[in-house]
Design goal:
Layout (H helix, E strand, L loop, with lengths): L7 H7 L4 E5 L7 H10 L4 E5 L5 H8 L6 E5 L4 H10 L3 E3 L5 H9 L4 E2 L1 E2 L2 H10 L3 E4 L7 H9 L6 E4 L8 H5 L7 E3 L5 H6 L2 H12 L6
Parallel strand pairs: 1-2, 1-9, 2-3, 3-4, 4-5, 6-7, 7-8
Helix pairs in contact: 2-3, 2-10
Bound molecules: 3-phosphoglyceric acid (3PG).
């Protein structure tokens, strides 16, 4: 692989919106209206976590929504990669990175945001061709000050911080030169999804979509 070829596609995806909704969807009936609500609010890039029995069907349904870019989150194994790709995921996200998982994503030609939470983990991924990665768990691992500290020695690497990101702290991440976008579940709260309050979700997405980025 050419240096940093692994991140070309994910960088384009991350450029589409400042926030990637992280979705835990239990009922496939919610998939279409939820995706439509988020896309209507200006958040076209959607991460469906593989943490529910419905997740693969949810990806397949959301993939039909015009204007959406649906990815699979919580990729842990090569089987997850195959299932996600078969369901129609156009990108993948993982909380971490193993060689086995990276090889599976590369062989499947699935653009992937692998997770890193230290300088060494980020450097290992960079060495393998990734210069766009997830920073997870963002708040617990040091938050925006940690990423700011990495921007001096590792300016070539961009991050999508996820985990504990909210409308209250998103700006502190997005103002950094090494943050392309951030991920978060706050734009699709369980209570609004269960209530079918799609207008409420569109409004949360609209506010998030207007966050400005330095990178
Ligand atoms: C997760 O683990 O579900 C994601 O990192 C999202 O975290 P959040 O719910 O804190 O946004």
């Amino acid at each position: 692989m050419l240096p940093h070829a692994a991140s070309i596609a994910t960088k384009k995806i991350c450029a589409l919106a400042p926030i990637i909704p992280v979705l835990v969807v239990h009922d496939v009936a919610h998939a279409r209206p939820l995706a439509e609500a988020l896309v209507a609010g200006g958040l076209p890039v959607l991460e469906v976590t593989l943490r529910t029995g419905a997740a693969l069907d949810v990806i397949a349904e959301m993939a039909k929504v015009e204007g959406g870019y649906v990815g699979a989150g919580t990729l842990l194994t090569p089987d997850d990669v195959k299932n996600a790709k078969d369901a129609g995921a156009t990108f993948g996200v993982s909380p971490g990175a193993t060689d086995t998982l990276l090889t599976a994503c590369e062989n499947a030609d699935l653009p992937t945001l692998p997770g890193a939470a230290s300088a060494t983990e980020a450097m290992r991924l960079f060495e393998r061709g990734y210069d766009m990665m997830k920073f997870f768990p963002a708040e617990a691992a040091g938050g925006a000050p940690f990423l700011k500290s990495l921007s001096s020695p590792l300016p070539q690497i961009s991050f999508c911080p996820t985990g504990g990101v909210s409308i209250d702290n998103a700006r502190s991440y997005l103002s950094l030169p090494n943050v392309a976008c951030a991920g978060g579940s706050w734009v699709a709260p369980d209570a609004l999804v269960k209530a079918g309050d799609w207008a409420g979700i569109t409004e949360l997405a609209r506010v998030a979509s207007q966050l400005s980025r330095a990178a």
